[in-house]
Design a protein that fits this description.
Layout (H helix, E strand, L loop, with lengths): L1 E3 L14 E3 L19 E2 L7 E2 L14 H4 L4 E3 L6 E3 L3 E3 L6 H13 L1 H13 L8 H13 L3 E6 L3 E6 L5 E7 L26 H15 L7 E7 L12 H7 L8 E12 L3 E3 L2 E4 L1 E10 L3 E2 L9 H19 L6 E9 L6 E2 L2 E10 L2 H15 L1 H4 L3 E7 L5 E3 L1 H15 L4 E3 L9 H5 L4 E9 L21 H19 L2
Parallel strand pairs: 4-5, 10-11, 10-12, 12-23, 13-22
Antiparallel strand pairs: 1-2, 3-5, 6-7, 8-9, 9-11, 13-23, 14-21, 15-19, 15-20, 16-18, 17-19
Helix pairs in contact: 2-12, 3-5, 5-12, 7-8, 10-12
């Protein structure tokens, strides 16, 4: 038995065709996409979709129904993972009526003045981690004006908004804290707090999640949405806990079935996003070490043990961990970012302090790096000195759930066009959204905020960072629509 079925997708001029047959009758399946050079395969072990790599992105793709004909799954590559519902039913990109999509974009765009005003108000009054009192007050007042149930003081200075009464629950997260950077931008909304600036886009994240609340409060939802406005993503408190950790401790994720978030991406043009499944951001751990020597006069180094010399050997050897002690295919970073020792040029000090970070995308690699770090500092003893090492476990790897990442990709393809949904690549930066994604299936996407009319190359955490505010309604619309579709499909 064979069957053919196809549908037009957003941005596609025409539909392509796929033929498939019962496995027991024809084990050699064939994908016929004449306009695309695609490597495809059939999974002979059972039914279901699997994603393979291929050198193209699709403007159109077939939509077979595997459970109807007891077929095995077909494998093709797309910019984001295929979503699966159950073991037998495979769903590729959903098809939405153009009028419905247009209305959602128009509705979000109408919010732009309000979102810009919110973002600029937050930008003018930036607050460091666990000090976001003014920002939290603005968030709580905005949510209350929309009719949401609001909790304050969650995770110290966080805010939680509740929409809906019963059914499955999806959370949407924003971070609210700023950075200790003196802003250099000459704009009307520049920071009014000396030495503090929103240089990572958290002001925009907060405004866009508020925008998502504005959109969703007008909608009849088949479930609940929980809006999480968390403090202190950029650091930790004196007990080593970040804002996400504190929010979890206070029960903000209790009963949550899924969680989504976004982060601004200044290297990607407005109107585009990046999303992918699997590891996205690295685990980040901190180490602090003291290399102990025996201080003496700089003219007589043989009478002591020079910890500066010993530190130089240790720092060089630390780079051998990644180069020679780890699998070359496993991404990892060891960085020594701070060295302090000595008071004068003719005095060999008694000790040198080092501080650094290790990054990894795999938990086994992470544990191996911890062990190798301690072994490497042991070199100081070989050279006649000693060491003290303190290691602080930080955020885990952010792993995007495949189904949630595919949902976001589907929504963005409908809203922006499939050509504007790009694959996200893993990066060695850290993100404490990973704490929330450990509590429930979650995914973060990266929203383009680079103005197509600007030649400036802006970087996060820089004193001149700014963003294209035309991206604000886009982020709000994707978050809101992803939440709505999740609830709609979870309730089926």
């Amino acid at each position: 038995m064979s069957c053919t079925r196809w549908q037009r997708l957003p941005g596609g001029a025409c539909a392509e065709m796929v033929s498939y047959t019962r496995r027991e009758q024809d084990p050699q399946r064939h994908l016929d996409l004449p306009s695309a050079h695609v490597h495809s395969t059939w999974d002979q072990s059972g039914r279901g979709w699997h994603v393979l790599t291929a050198p193209c992105a699709f403007s159109t793709l077939p939509l077979p129904f595997a459970d109807a004909y007891n077929t095995v799954g077909l494998s093709v590559s797309i910019p984001w993972p295929v979503r699966r519902k159950g073991s037998a039913h495979a769903k590729l990109l959903g098809v939405r009526h153009p009028m419905e999509i247009g209305e959602r974009l128009h509705e979000a765009d109408d919010l732009k003045p309000a979102l810009v005003e919110l973002r600029r108000a937050i930008h003018r009054r930036p607050e460091l981690g666990f000090r976001e009192t003014e920002t939290a007050r603005l968030v709580a007042e905005t949510l209350s004006s929309l009719g949401l149930k609001v909790e304050t003081g969650v995770g110290k200075t966080g805010v939680v908004g509740h929409l809906g009464n019963e059914g499955p629950t999806i959370a949407i997260r924003a971070d609210m804290d700023a950075l200790p950077i003196r802003e250099q931008n000459d704009v009307p909304y520049a920071s009014q707090v000396p030495g503090v600036m929103h240089a990572c886009g958290h002001d925009a994240h907060t405004a866009m999640v508020l925008g998502a609340a504005m959109l969703l409060c007008r909608t009849e939802l088949p479930g609940r949405v929980r809006f999480l406005f968390q403090p202190c993503e950029e650091g930790t408190d004196d007990q080593g806990k970040s804002g996400a950790m504190r929010m979890v401790d206070d029960g903000a994720m209790n009963g949550v079935d899924a969680v989504i978030a976004l982060h601004v991406e200044p290297r990607t043009e407005t109107g585009r996003i990046k999303v992918g499944g699997g590891p996205m951001c690295a685990a980040a751990d901190v180490f602090r070490a003291t290399i102990v020597g025996d201080g003496c006069h700089g003219a007589f180094p043989h009478l002591g043990i020079d910890p500066v010399f010993v530190s130089a050997q240790v720092i060089s050897a630390l780079q051998g961990i990644v180069a020679r002690r780890l699998d070359p295919t496993a991404p990892a970073v060891v960085t020594v970012g701070s060295i302090h020792g000595g008071t004068a040029g003719n005095i060999i000090p008694g000790e040198v302090q080092l501080k650094g970070t290790i990054r990894s995308l795999d938990e086994d690699v992470r544990r191996r790096m911890w062990a190798e770090l301690r072994n490497t500092f042991g070199l100081s003893r070989t050279l006649g000195g000693d060491f003290q090492l303190e290691m602080e476990e930080g955020f885990p790897v952010l792993v995007n759930d495949l189904a949630m990442a595919a949902l976001i990709g589907e929504v963005a393809a409908d809203l922006l066009g499939v050509d504007n949904v790009l694959p996200a690549q893993p990066e060695m930066g850290a993100e404490d959204f990973s704490i929330l994604a450990d509590q429930a299936p979650g995914a973060m996407f990266f929203l383009g905020v680079k103005s197509p009319h600007s030649e400036r190359s802006l970087q996060l955490h820089s004193a001149d960072f700014d963003l294209d505010e035309n991206a604000l309604p886009i982020g709000a619309a994707i978050l809101a629509e992803a939440a709505r579709r999740y609830l709609q499909e979870a309730g089926l």
